[in-house]
Amino acid sequence: MKNILTSFSILILLLSCVNDKKDAPKEEKKPLTFTTKTIEKKLEDCEPEEGDCTFINLTFPVAENGTGEAERINKKIEDFIVRTIDYQDEENAEKAEQLAENFIEDYKEAADEFPEYELAWEATINGKVNYRSPAVISIKFNTSIFTGGAHGYRSTNYINFNPETGRILTSVDLFTKEFVDFVERDFREKNEIPLDDNINSTGLLFENDEFHLPANIGFSENEVILHYNAYDIAPYSAGNFVFIYSKAEVEQYLKISETNENL
Asked: With the CA atoms of 216, 220, 224 and 227 taken in that order, what torsion angle do they form, in degrees rounded to the nearest 10?
């Protein structure tokens, strides 16, 4: 009899646990969101606004929540920032915070080695979510760096992410092959390069004498932006080459869409 009562008590306990699990509210998955993070380091007590100040300022979006895509997006963003600022360092930092510390320390080392060197260093990256839809998250970065030399370095860069996976979307993911032909025709017309002439016939520097889309292609609410930075396809003196098309104008060449069907 005692054994029967014990078994019955265990059964009641197990049933109670099962019911508790059923009654427990399920943890709701929060949608992917973005906040903004700023990291600034400066030499001693100087003020960047007053000039003659060595400083680094990094402002960039940080993805939160989601189901794993946030971590991938954040990793790619920090990789871009580190690669852009720390491109000459053999021991690259892995995080933006360490990058900022290294930038100031590198300046101190340069100033100690060359006491007569008085030019301040500056590095600024300003990143933001430029456009977001169910099909693409387009993040824009404006970069300005000066670490000596005849002139500094400025660039505009875009990274496009798949919102569902957090993986980077390439131009092949975004556009059909016909889009390249469309842009080349427009590029040649605007730069007065005949279709039967070499693309570099006017002094441009396309690799292998072949036209290619820029590495930096971004999206806004109504436009597709193609941005060649200085040095990408021409000498520094030529500046940037920027082509902007309405989405309606290039809709036939797009592989993605607002609803993952049509952009």
From this structure: -30
